Amino acid sequence: MRVGVPKETAEGEQRVALVPEVIKKLSAAGHEVVVQPGAGAGAMIPDAHFADAGATLSDDVWSSDVVVKVAPPTSEEIGKLGSGTLLVGFLEPLTNGAVIKGLADAKATAFAMEAIPRITRAQSMDALSSQSNVAGYKAVLLATNEIGRFMPMLMTAAGTIRPAKVLVLGAGVAGLQAIATARRLGAVVVGYDVRSAVKEQVESLGAQFLELEAGKGAEGEGGYARELTDEEKAAQQQELTDAIAGFDIVITTALVPGRPAPKLITAEAVEKMPAGAVIVDLAGIAGGNCELTEPGQTVVKHDVTIAAPLNLPATMAEHASSLYARNVQALLELFLDEEKQGVSLDFEDEIIAGACITRDGEIVHEGAKQTAAATA
């Protein structure tokens, strides 16, 4: 099997889809890996390291059996895909209709990393989780940098400084990592999620769990929270508005795949926060969890700093790439025919079928069909 690794072209994208550690394993198994020169520059991986791992450095990556990316391809990149080439990457099947239609028109067989079923057998391929870990960690560092206060309690000759109070909204992978990181820095941490089942996970990290009456029992399918009703949202917002006022830092991570981010922090709540407080909104890509969020920007409203970075994993490209590459490797292993040393797709496998977005000129993923139809 020939695997191509192009240099990412999306603005701000520093990650690379495969790293030398994974390439060495693929090469040892008899597969050819072609890496575009400069592909690892953003992740601080020189071309020489790819070559030492057994990769060939060349711009001719698009005609490979499989092309692996991080960000969705541009229309120009889609046009470069060779006949019969498989594409693997984050393809945004529930939001990016133009890319999905382009891949179908190009008759590409495309697999979206974010569409991999969240089942036990697919945990090693779960790129959403691996990258959310990075985002949750970096969100706390970003908040710590923005706030003009200490995180831990300090007892000094000049007096005692109280620890910062941190609230994390959403206790998925990113939220739990944010909770753990803020605790390591010595803050008093409180976690909240509409899924009451995660209370034990929050408390196991040394944080308190904020219990609200509204939205209890909002567990949904696939490990995500279901979308709340309008009545639940209104009641939840009022309770959160009252609770948020006492925190120095609020980190929000609440996302519903393919839908606008739920508004958990009202303008009223921001106004009630102490001057100098910080909000880091990880849902900016879907509009943000805060009413005053400006996606991709850091702004100050009512003396509160609101940061809404759109791609935090790319700011920690070295480790984010390493984790993502292992996810890709695990998926590629499902594609292999060990006897023929080539690609063999078993669409009876629920992982392969679930991750496939386009095939033979058709959009085969139900959510992607709706996205493409809405784009037409």
UniProtKB/TrEMBL annotation:
The transhydrogenation between NADH and NADP is coupled to respiration and ATP hydrolysis and functions as a proton pump across the membrane. The lineage of its organism: Bacteria, Bacillati, Actinomycetota, Thermoleophilia, Solirubrobacterales. The keyword Nucleotide-binding applies. It is an enzyme of class 7 (translocase). Pfam families: AlaDh_PNT_C, AlaDh_PNT_N. InterPro entries: Ala_DH/PNT_CS2, AlaDH/PNT_N, AlaDH/PNT_NAD(H)-bd, NAD(P)-bd_dom_sf. Its EC number is 7.1.1.1. SUPFAM superfamilies: Formate/glycerate dehydrogenase catalytic domain-like, NAD(P)-binding Rossmann-fold domains. SMART domains: AlaDh_PNT_C (SM01002), AlaDh_PNT_N (SM01003). This is proton-translocating NAD(P)(+) transhydrogenase. Belongs to the AlaDH/PNT family.
